[in-house]
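Lab notebook, page 48
Experiment: co-folding of the full assembly
Goal: obtain a model of how the components sit together before planning crosslinking
Operator: M.T.
Materials (sequences as entered):
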Amino acid sequence: DTAVSQTPKYLVTQMGNDKSIKCEQNLGHDTMYWYKQDSKKFLKIMFSYNNKELIINETVPNRFSPKSPDKAHLNLHINSLELGDSAVYFCASSQALGGDPHYGYTFGSGTRLTVV
Amino acid sequence: KNQVEQSPQSLIILEGKNCTLQCNYTVSPFSNLRWYKQDTGRGPVSLTIMTFSENTKSNGRYTATLDADTKQSSLHITASQLSDSASYICVVGSSNTGKLIFGQGTTLQVKP
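Observation: model returned without errors.
Model output:
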């Protein structure tokens, strides 16, 4: 199946732990993103990578560190997890940087992170 | 400030009925407007994408309209089905940053 797949789907962990979420796309897209969807359902961009290069880095705590080993993968590592990090994290990809109307986004199914 | 506001926040309709969801935006400069459907526990899936020059676009029972002068869009769902129960998110692209600005979504519940 052609898709954006992210793992794990659910992640429950204690405060202070370090965790990673993995994302892979087999669509041949050049750009990948991480979004955070909070309890109010707003999706907010965190990072964008284009061909393994960081393009967008929103105001995100430096405890969050994306890593792109190749253009098909964008992983998100979170250090020293806090209660406020609990949210659903979505990976997405597109052929070009998101503003281009000719290219849609494809989202993964999300990772629900719960910090206890 | 670039913002996207949707109304209503939630909506309940009976199966087979039509409904219209609204989106107002203040994003500038405007590039495109997208409507997404997000089922519970899933990622958003694109329904329509419109540029400045397009004022309507259909995808099956979904029809989106865009008025770039008033900065308003609507998503009309015809002959609703139970599977239409989801959140519908309006997203506006900014042409100078390449970023997408997401609305909060309208949660639609279709009841039998």
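Interpretation: The two ends of chain A are 34 Å apart (CA to CA).
Next step: discuss with group before ordering constructs.
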